[in-house]
């Protein structure tokens, strides 16, 4: 544990709303329900019963039959992080989980989140609330990646990218753009001009790619042609895609537990990370969403060290090198 804790490493793929400690969500839920009862309000995106059931599911550790079950966990969380105050509290708790303490989980964190418009804030106010917390830390330690969702239309997408570029030009700690959300939704061509705009503004680009068996080779090749700096998951790359990835040295953000629990990878022994380790290709070990996947960055690194079938059985030297690779793949 001491070896893993003291190992220099970066967390590069953590979704804010999937990384909130359950204790904080429970507190937010109690306050939310109490204020709704006091105001007699019935207007909400989610019923009180669904909210309570959703939080209980997260507390128990959700059972996922397939990756799509995972996305249904978010409406309950979103109901609780829909004001700037609540969002800031949640962000503070996530930052603290990764970065605080004598021997923190990582030396560097890139936190990502999708700007949401609610009745209490617009998308820019959403990002400003998160940034206010992020910027309480040393800028060398943490940066914000703005996520766009595959379900977004041109108008919202344009708005998110415009705000991300503007904030960066104002010297705020926005470092990248991410494509995430339901892997089966949307047409990736929609995103091409926005990716180009973000890159022009100096933002790093990372895309969730080939996450499920349903993502076509054609879609994957299109996404690769937009020249992302890093790739999220990249589970179902065919030979042609692997060749491009190896050739361009695109770092792969690897989320072992997430892949196993979403059943996109069946065993650690068959995980695609092994093929990249063999090729000495850059990878970065990440958590994805520590709340539903009940993991931590240390637990993900522990899977590297543990002997098969519980882990990959790598040596300390190999694991040290993976920490270095994650630091090397940071966005500037
Ligand atoms: P947020 O962006 O709201 O802070 O974090 C939660 C959101 O991140 C989810 O609603 C989902 O759109 C996205 N997300 C989290 N984990 C994954 C993942 O493993 N794959 C994909 N494609 N999207 C994810």
Write structural notes for this entry:
The protein is an alpha/beta fold and 332 residues long. Helix content is 48%, strand content 13%. It is built from 16 helices and eight strands. The chain has helices at 2-6, 22-39, 48-60, 67-71, 74-80, 84-99, 123-134, 154-169, 192-200, 217-225, 239-248, 256-261, 273-278, 290-293, 297-305, 316-328, and strands at 10-15, 108-113, 142-149, 174-180, 204-209, 230-233, 251-254, 283-285. It has an eight-stranded parallel sheet with strand order 1-2-3-4-5-6-7-8. Helix 2 (22-39) runs antiparallel to helix 3 (48-60). It is globular, with a radius of gyration of 19 Å. The two termini are 30 Å apart. 45% of the residues are buried. The mean pLDDT is 96. Guanosine-5'-monophosphate is lined by residues 15-18, 74, 113-114, 147, 149, 180-181, 183, 208, 211, 258, 288-289.
Provide a compact summary of the structure.
With 332 residues, the protein is α/β, with parallel strands linked by helices. It is built from 16 helices and eight strands. The protein has an eight-stranded parallel sheet.
């Amino acid at each position: 544990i001491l070896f893993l804790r003291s190992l220099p490493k970066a967390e590069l793929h953590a979704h804010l709303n999937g990384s909130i400690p359950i204790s904080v969500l429970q507190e937010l839920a109690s306050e939310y329900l109490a204020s709704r009862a006091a105001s007699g309000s019935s207007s909400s995106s989610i019923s009180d019963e669904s909210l309570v059931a959703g939080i209980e599911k997260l507390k128990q550790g959700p059972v996922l039959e397939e990756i799509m079950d995972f996305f249904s966990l978010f409406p309950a969380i979103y109901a609780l992080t829909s004001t700037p105050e609540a969002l800031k509290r949640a962000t503070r708790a996530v930052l603290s989980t990764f970065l605080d303490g004598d021997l923190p989980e990582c030396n560097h964190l890139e936190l990502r989140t999708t700007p949401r418009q609610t009745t209490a804030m617009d998308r820019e106010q959403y990002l400003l609330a998160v940034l206010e917390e992020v910027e309480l830390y040393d800028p060398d330690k943490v940066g914000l990646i703005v996520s766009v969702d595959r379900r977004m239309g041109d108008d919202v997408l344009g708005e998110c990218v415009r705000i991300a570029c503007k904030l960066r030009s104002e010297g705020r700690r926005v470092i990248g753009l991410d494509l995430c959300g339901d892997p089966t939704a949307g047409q990736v061509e929609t995103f091409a001009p926005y990716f180009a705009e973000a890159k022009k503004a100096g933002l790093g680009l990372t895309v969730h790619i080939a996450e499920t068996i349903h993502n076509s080779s054609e879609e994957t090749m299109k996404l690769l042609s937009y020249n992302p700096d890093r790739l999220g998951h990249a589970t179902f790359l065919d030979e042609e895609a692997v060749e491009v990835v190896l050739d361009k040295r695109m770092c792969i953000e690897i989320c072992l537990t997430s892949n196993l629990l979403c059943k996109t990878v069946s065993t650690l022994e068959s995980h695609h990370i092994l093929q990249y380790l063999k090729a000495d290709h850059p990878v970065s070990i990440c958590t994805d969403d520590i709340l539903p996947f009940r993991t931590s960055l240390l637990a993900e690194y522990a899977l590297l060290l543990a002997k098969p079938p519980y882990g990959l059985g790598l040596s300390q030297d190999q694991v040290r090198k993976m920490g270095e690779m994650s630091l090397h793949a940071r966005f500037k």
